[in-house]
Design goal:
The protein is of the alpha/beta class. It has four helices and three strands; from the N terminus they run H-E-H-H-E-H-E. Strands 2-1-3 form a three-stranded parallel sheet, with helices on both faces. The chain is about 25% helix and about 10% strand. It is globular, with a radius of gyration of 16 Å.
Length: about 120
């Protein structure tokens, strides 16, 4: 990635976001209404999962967990929940539910990865 391409990439990403329904004007989040957030999901802090099935490797990746941690004053409670996007190990589900119950806001970050999509995997 060439630094001069970052602004146009950011603009393209911002213009491609689609919000289907914004019930009670929930978004954008009002940072003053929350003091803690549960960030849950196999892709919440996984830079490989965050980029999906696209190559080449970007210059840098900011995961959802890192973005929230670095841009808010909220107490961040993080739990992966599933060991991977296939959710073959759900032994941490109860921990994820517990941190969700103790937080003001829940952000779930699911997705897919090369382990379940791509040539020979889908």
């Amino acid at each position: 990635v060439v630094d001069k391409h970052i602004p146009i990439n950011r603009e393209a990403a911002q213009q491609s976001i689609v919000l289907i329904k914004n019930k009670n004007n929930f978004l954008p989040l009002d940072a003053t209404k929350y003091s803690s957030v549960a960030i849950i999901g196999p892709c919440a802090d996984d830079p490989v999962c965050s980029r999906g099935d696209y190559d080449p490797q970007p210059k840098y990746i900011i995961t959802v967990k890192n973005a929230v941690t670095n841009s808010t004053k909220w107490k961040v409670n993080y739990m992966q929940g599933c060991s991977d996007v296939k959710c073959t190990d759900n032994s941490k589900f109860s921990d994820a539910v517990n941190i969700a119950k103790s937080s003001d806001l829940i952000i779930y970050v699911g997705g897919t990865s090369k382990t379940i999509e791509g040539e020979g995997n889908d």
